[in-house]
Specification:
- The chain has 295 residues and is α+β, with helices and mostly antiparallel strands.
- It is globular and about 60 Å long.
- The protein has a 6-stranded mixed beta sheet with strand order 1-5-4-6-7-10, with no helix packed on it. A 6-stranded antiparallel beta sheet has the order 3-2-12-11-8-9, covered by helices on one side. Strands 14-15-13-18-19 form a 5-stranded mixed beta sheet, with helices on both faces.
- It starts with a helix and ends with a strand.
- The chain is built from 7 helices and 19 strands.
- It has helices at residues 3-7, 123-136, 146-163, 177-184, 186-201, 227-243, 271-287; strands spanning 11-13, 26-31, 40-42, 47-51, 58-60, 70-75, 78-83, 90-92, 95-97, 99-101, 107-110, 113-118, 166-174, 209-214, 217-223, 246-248, 251-253, 257-265, 293-294.
Length: 295
């Protein structure tokens, strides 16, 4: 999402319909960030209209959202979401839908905005769990967020210094990502970021952490990994991204990444200084022609 779009994000609950129950099903905004992140929109009536227009029940002021984008409607015991002929479509759990019944925990994507649907007998507990996840998980990619990464890295650096064990940091970003947004649109850019994180999670061990550091930049913490092992891992993920293009709505999007690697062993170092070592190598990889690993 462009800085222009991010800057104008504004989500407001304009009106309510019907009478609220004790724990009505609800939509919770989980992406993008901003003052409305985590806001709960109870489905306390029969219909909620979602779109960019001011007459909508949930107004999402993003260019990627149509004026009347989608509708959420109660039909007996079911809650249905229906696309209203929007330009960019309505998605449930990454699948484009015209109409679909929602289940507890489903993610509903309206343009660049993502909502989580909560229902059932314990909506309040589900809401608090969703809020907690937002403190550590990036809503778009479902990788850990920068805050969690820095806290984890601080603990890991202290542990490795205490026991004089190595720790490595792999930092990478997507080459020419702006061109992807400009050519294929910001929804395609969002898809690439989500799909990239999904592919990489299969390569991340339980003790390792994949985080979205910001924009199109990601980091992986590799506890107890020496420099050679970290370089091997970095080359594996570089090849993984290069080998299989990304496909969004029949558009084939080739992608490469540039990677910087840093390793320390038994040293005491500030987390941000360690990040800078990896970031400097990432910069060298990009300056050297991109689609390469430097460490």
């Amino acid at each position: 999402m462009s800085a222009r779009e991010e800057g104008k994000t504004r989500i407001t609950h304009v009106k309510k319909a019907g009478e609220a129950s004790d724990e009505p099903a609800c939509l919770v905004l989980i992406y993008p960030g901003g003052p409305d992140l985590g806001r709960r929109f109870p489905l306390d009536g029969d219909t909620l209209l979602i779109g960019r227009g001011s007459d909508c029940d949930i107004t999402v002021d993003l260019d990627s959202v149509s004026r009347r984008h989608a509708q959420v409607e109660r039909r007996g015991a079911a809650v249905m979401v229906a696309d209203l002929g929007s330009t960019n479509g309505t998605y449930v759990n990454e699948t484009q839908v015209q109409e679909r019944a929602l289940a507890d925990g489903d993610q509903v994507k309206i343009g660049n905005a993502i909502f989580k649907f909560l229902s059932g007998g314990n909506v309040e507990a589900g809401y608090h769990e969703a809020i907690y996840r937002m403190t550590i998980i990036d809503g778009l990619t479902e990788a850990y967020n920068k805050r969690y990464f820095l806290e984890f890295l601080d603990r890991e650096l202290a542990r490795c210094a205490r026991y004089r064990r190595p720790v490595s940091l792999v930092m990478f970003d997507l080459d020419h990502f702006k061109k992807i947004n400009d050519t294929h649109g910001h929804l395609a850019g969002d898809y690439v970021l989500r799909e990239l994180a999904r592919r990489l999670r299969s390569r991340i061990r339980k003790e390792e952490v994949l985080s979205r550091y910001g924009g199109e930049e990601f980091v992986v913490v590799l506890p107890e990994a020496g420099h050679e092992g970290a370089m091997d891992f970095a080359e594996q993920i570089r090849r993984l991204v290069e080998r299989e293009p990304f496909v969004f709505e029949e558009d084939v999007i080739p992608l490469t990444i540039s990677v910087g690697v840093a390793t320390i062993e038994g040293q005491t170092i500030d987390p941000l200084q360690f990040v800078k070592l990896a970031d400097d190598n990432l910069y060298r990889a990009k300056r050297g022609g991109r689609n390469r690993v430097v460490g």
